[in-house]
Amino acid sequence: MTIQEKDYSLISKKLLSKADKDGIERKIVKVVVRKGDAILMLKRAETERFSGLYELPGGDLKRMKMFFFEPAENCMKKPA
Fold it and tell me: What global pTM score does this model have?
């Protein structure tokens, strides 16, 4: 089954709605960035908690909300 881009937005909205109903206040997201067989992994800085570990890029949803509700090409445009 292939999930189309418009379906991601619908799935995201449903998950967020359920999280709100369940009283989940802080939402963290991770993304998989693929190019061919490669996957982007980030190494935590030595000054951070769990330093030196590798993880998928992501963060607090409040700061990343535009990525879930905007088409990818809009997120990559420079502000006017």
Answer: 0.54
